[in-house]
């Protein structure tokens, strides 16, 4: 995994190098925005740099809703643990 964007309390994004050559060049990320009583989290996947010859081989969306919910749950638990330790 390679971090492609990082702005504390605003955004983190990454790409996965994997074993496919050339790499797919897709980017996953979270954007964070203040919201009433917490933080609004937007999960995104950017496939705009995907090579044309890969496009016909993939079915979109690649990431099912259940996987998105799982990663958001991991993010939530991580933030809650960090807050508990800081308190």
Describe this structure in words.
- It is built from 2 helices and 4 strands; from the N terminus they run E-E-E-E-H-H.
- By secondary structure, the protein is α+β, with helices and mostly antiparallel strands.
- A 4-stranded antiparallel sheet has the order 1-2-3-4, with no helix packed on it.
- The longest helix has 22 residues, at 65-86.
- The mean pLDDT is 85.
Give a quick precis of the structure.
This protein is an alpha+beta fold and about 90 residues long. It has helices spanning about 50-55, 65-85, and strands at about 1-5, 10-15, 25-35, 40-45.
* Number of helical elements: 2
- Number of E strands: 4
- Order of strands, main sheet, comes to 1-2-3-4
Which parts are unreliable, with pLDDT below 50 for 5 consecutive residues or more?
A: none
First-residue to last-residue Cα separation: 31 Å
Summarize the amount of helix as a percent range: 25-40%
Overall residue-averaged pLDDT value: 85
Beta-strand fraction estimate: 25-35%
Radius of gyration computed on alpha carbons: 15 Å
Return the structural class. Answer: alpha+beta
The biggest beta sheet reads: 4 strands, antiparallel
What is the ordering of alpha helices and beta strands?
Answer: EEEEHH
Gross geometry: elongated
SSE blueprint and pairings:
Elements: E1 2-7, E2 11-15, E3 27-35, E4 38-46, H1 52-55, H2 65-86
Antiparallel strand pairs: 1-2, 2-3, 3-4
